[in-house]
Amino acid sequence: TFTGTGNRITGDFSNATQSSRVAFQTSTTNGTSTITVLPNGTGTQTTINLFDNSDPTNAGTLNLLSNTTEKSVRAGITGTGTYVPLTFYTNGSERMRIDTSGNVGIGGSPFSYGGGYTDLWVQASTSPVIDLAVSTTRTGTFYASSSAVTFGSVTAVPLIAYTANTE
Q1: pLDDT value at position 6?
Q2: Does the pLDDT at position 7 exceed 90?
Q3: Closest CA to 109 of 59, 117, 100
Q4: N or C: which terminus of the chain has fewer CB atoms within 10 Å of its end residue's CB?
Q5: DSSP structure class, residue 141
């Protein structure tokens, strides 16, 4: 129990492989370590906030939020912090980015057309593909190469175009 304001738990559990860390580990041999955050009383929301500055009143933030209507990951700021993109990495490389304008890049940074536009950028070293599936059956594809852009059905379903909800 802490009283007052601005209380912090600090620690440096340095070892030979990683320094400047705080570690939580279960005392159960081969058990799963879990960190739980619960709302108090009749509250229905919990958050975990990560800051990019030791002054949390003026910082960029990453917020994990859970309440009864949504579960979300949010990039934001407090005070005079700076907005930055939300990036996703696998195998040591950036694989997806959502920039501060809402543009999404998969395989590369999204292109920015300017105000009023939102871009979905899919980049690959040879040919980017967007597949459309019904359940687990691939039924449509959008494919690009250096010589052509193709949109089509993969199965024996027709390709239909609509204008004003009319074929």
Answers
A1: 75
A2: no
A3: 100
A4: N
A5: E
**Which three-class secondary structure string do you get for the chain?**
CCCCCCCCCCCCCCCCCCCCCCCCCCCCCCCCCCCCCCCCCCCCCEEEEEECCCCCCCEEEEEEEECCCCEEEEEEEECCCCCCCEEEEECCEEEEEECCCCCEEECCCCCCCCCCCCCEEECCCCCCEEEEEECCEEEEEEEECCCCEEEEECCCCCCCCCECCEC
| Sheet (strand 59-66) strand order | 46-51, 59-66, 71-78
DSSP code at position 31 = P
Question: What single-letter amino acid sits at 100?
Answer: T
Token pair in block for residue 61: 């933030």
Give the predicted TM-score (pTM) of the model: 0.79
Asked if residues 96 and 76 have their Cβ atoms less than 8 Å apart, the reply is no
